[in-house]
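Section 5: illustrative case.
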C-alpha cells in the first residue's frame, strides 16, 4: 500500500475514506445503469447520500481494523517490550523470571499473517528461553568446575549436572590419565568395569566424534547395560586441544532432544577445561609430594600423612606403627662406587620395602638414606616383623654394577602406639629414632623396638 503519513492506520483511514467517497460518486451511475430513472439518482441529494454512506462505511472499516488488527498488534508490542526488558535484565546477570515462555506466548487463533506473526513471536520466546537456559547452565557448570580441584568430587558433581541438563536417566564419566581410561563417576549403569573396554567408547576416543546409538526394543548395548531399558545411548569424547582426556556416557529411555545435544556440546567444552585443570593440579601435587628419585613421599608430605594417620588412630582407638630405616655405611657406597650406584641402591631398597608392606601402608623418604614406613593398625610386633623381613631381604640381595655386586645392610627402629604412650606423631617418630640409635650402637644390621 502506498504510504501517505507515518502512521499505518492513518494511511488506512485516508485510503478507505477516499475509497468510500469514490464509491459514493460511482454508485448513482451504477444504479442508473441498472435501469433506475435519471431524475431519481442523478441528483445532488442522492450523490450526497451515497458519498455519506461511503464515508460511514470507510470509517466503520477503520474502527473494525483498529479493534481487530490493532488489538493484536498492541498485544504483540506489549509482549515484545516485556521480552526486551528481560533481555536487558539478562544482560545485567539476571534471568527470565518475568517472561517464562508460557507467560509470554501469544494465542494463535488465526490462519493468516497475524497468526504467522504470533507463531514467529512464540518461537522467538522459546528460542530465547532455550538460549538463556543453555547460557545459565554453562555459567553454573563452569563455576562448579572452577571451584573443584578434587578429581572424584568434580567428576561426580559434573556427571549430575550433565544428566540434569540432558534429562538422561543414567550416565558415567571416564577420565584418561597416564594412558589409562578409568570410570570416575557413574549413576544407573551396570557392568561399569566393562565401560573402559567398550567398543563405542573406544570408537569415540579414536575418532574424537560423538557416538549416538539408538536401540530398538529388546536390544541392549554390551558394556553399557543400564538398570532400565535405554532407547538411546550417547558416548561423547571430551577433548582438550584435540587430545582426548575423557568420555561422557549418557543413556535415556527417550530420545535426546536437539536442545539437549546442543547444550551438552557447550558443557563438554567447559568440562574439558575443568578436567585438564584438575589433572594438571594432580600432576603438580604428585610432583610436589613425591621424591623424584624413588617415587615415594618426600619428608614434607610424608609427615603430613603421618599426622593424618595419627589423628585417625586416635579417633578410632586403633594402633599406629612406624619403622625408621637407615642404610648402614651408605656414605662409603657413594664414595666407592659413585652417586649413581648409590641412587640405584636407594631405589632397590624402596622396591624391597614395597614388597613387604601392605596396601595402605605409606613409605616416606625421611632423609638422604633414611626411610620412614607408616603402618596403620600395626602393633609393635607387626612393625618388627615388617622391619625384619626388609632387613633380611636387603642383606640377601645385591645391586650389580658391571661385574661388581654391591651388598648393603640396614638398621631399623620401630615404635607403635599400642605399647607406647605418645602425645603426637613427632613423639612416635622420636621413639623409633631412639630405637634406631640402639640398633646402630649394637652393631648395625639389626632391628630394635621402642
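Designed sequence:
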Amino acid at each position: 500500500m502506498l504510504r501517505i503519513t507515518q502512521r499505518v492506520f492513518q494511511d488506512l483511514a485516508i485510503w478507505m475514506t477516499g475509497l468510500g467517497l469514490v464509491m459514493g460518486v460511482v454508485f448513482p451511475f451504477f444504479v442508473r445503469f441498472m435501469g433506475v430513472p435519471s431524475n431519481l439518482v442523478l441528483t445532488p441529494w442522492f450523490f450526497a447520500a451515497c458519498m455519506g454512506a461511503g464515508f460511514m462505511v470507510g470509517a466503520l472499516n477503520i474502527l473494525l481494523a483498529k479493534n481487530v488488527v490493532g488489538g493484536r498488534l498492541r498485544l504483540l508490542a506489549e509482549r515484545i517490550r516485556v521480552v526486551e526488558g528481560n533481555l536487558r535484565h539478562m544482560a545485567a546477570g539476571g534471568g527470565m523470571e518475568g517472561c517464562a515462555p508460557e507467560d509470554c506466548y501469544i494465542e494463535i487463533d488465526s490462519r493468516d499473517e497475524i497468526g504467522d506473526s504470533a507463531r514467529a513471536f512464540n518461537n522467538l520466546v522459546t528460542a530465547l528461553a532455550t538460549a538463556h537456559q543453555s547460557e545459565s547452565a554453562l555459567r553454573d557448570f563452569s563455576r562448579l568446575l572452577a571451584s573443584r580441584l578434587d578429581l572424584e568430587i568434580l567428576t561426580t558433581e559434573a556427571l549430575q549436572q550433565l544428566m540434569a541438563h540432558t534429562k538422561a536417566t543414567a550416565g558415567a564419566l571416564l577420565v584418561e590419565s597416564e594412558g589409562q581410561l578409568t570410570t570416575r563417576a557413574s549413576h544407573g549403569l551396570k557392568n561399569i568395569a566393562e565401560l573402559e573396554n567398550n567398543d563405542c567408547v573406544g570408537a569415540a576416543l579414536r575418532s574424537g566424534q560423538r557416538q549416538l546409538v539408538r536401540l530398538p526394543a529388546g536390544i541392549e548395548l554390551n558394556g553399557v547395560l543400564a538398570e532400565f531399558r535405554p532407547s538411546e545411548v550417547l558416548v561423547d569424547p571430551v577433548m582438550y586441544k584435540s587430545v582426548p582426556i575423557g568420555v561422557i556416557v549418557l543413556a535415556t529411555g527417550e530420545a535426546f532432544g536437539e536442545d539437549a545435544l546442543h547444550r551438552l556440546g557447550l558443557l563438554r567444552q567447559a568440562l574439558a577445561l575443568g578436567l585438564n585443570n584438575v589433572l594438571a593440579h594432580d600432576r603438580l601435587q604428585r610432583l610436589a609430594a613425591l621424591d623424584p628419585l624413588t617415587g615415594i613421599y618426600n619428608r614434607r608430605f610424608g609427615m603430613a600423612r603421618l599426622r593424618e594417620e595419627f589423628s585417625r588412630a586416635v579417633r578410632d582407638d586403633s594402633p599406629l606403627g612406624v619403622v625408621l630405616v637407615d642404610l648402614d655405611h651408605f656414605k662409603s657406597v657413594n664414595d666407592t662406587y659413585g652417586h649413581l650406584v648409590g641412587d640405584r641402591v636407594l631405589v632397590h631398597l624402596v622396591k624391597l620395602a614395597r614388597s613387604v608392606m601392605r596396601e595402605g601402608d605409606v613409605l616416606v623418604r625421611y632423609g638422604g638414606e633414611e626411610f620412614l614406613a607408616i603402618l596403620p593398625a600395626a602393633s609393635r610386633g607387626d612393625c618388627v616383623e615388617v622391619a625384619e623381613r626388609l632387613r633380611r631381604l636387603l642383606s640377601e640381595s645385591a645391586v650389580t654394577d658391571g661385574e661388581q655386586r654391591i651388598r648393603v645392610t640396614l638398621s631399623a627402629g620401630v615404635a607403635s602406639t599400642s605399647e607406647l604412650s605418645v602425645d603426637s606423631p613427632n613423639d612416635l617418630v622420636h621413639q623409633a629414632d631412639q630405637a634406631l640409635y640402639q640398633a646402630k650402637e649394637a652393631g648395625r644390621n639389626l632391628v630394635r623396638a621402642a
